[in-house]
Amino acid sequence: MVATLGAMAGLVVDKTMHASAVAAKKSVRGAVVTVTGPPVPIAHGVVQVRITVAAGHIDRVVAVRLPHDNAVSWARSVVAARRLAGEVVGAQSAHVDGVSGATYTSKAYLASLQAAIDAGLQPG
């Protein structure tokens, strides 16, 4: 079991690092920019985050896709997404701690988020 968890951790790191390189989808309306980060696959599903940037500040963070292959994954992912969204808006950064009990979801969430931030805070 330990070897499996180690292999999974490596898989998540590889996928999250790759996700940062994927271009995010960006839509602009006036001074408000909405950016959807890339989907990041993990063992129990896919995580994808959308941000709204207003006047150069992260105004809103929403998970548009979360793992839902079973009730436990779904419940942990929903709790993690809520907690991470609040921390990200407060920190104005993806540099926040992951949520215990939802490590893979947290890492994937933050990877999709970072890609969205990179695209959303770029001029033009």
UniProtKB/TrEMBL annotation:
SMART domains xrefs = FMN_bind
- What's the protein name? FMN-binding domain-containing protein
Query: Which InterPro entries does the record match to this protein?
Result: FMN-bd
Give the species. Catenulispora yoronensis
Domain of life, per the record?
Bacteria
> Which Gene3D superfamilies does the protein's record reference?
3.90.1010.20
- What are the residue boundaries of the FMN-binding domain, all occurrences included? 43-120
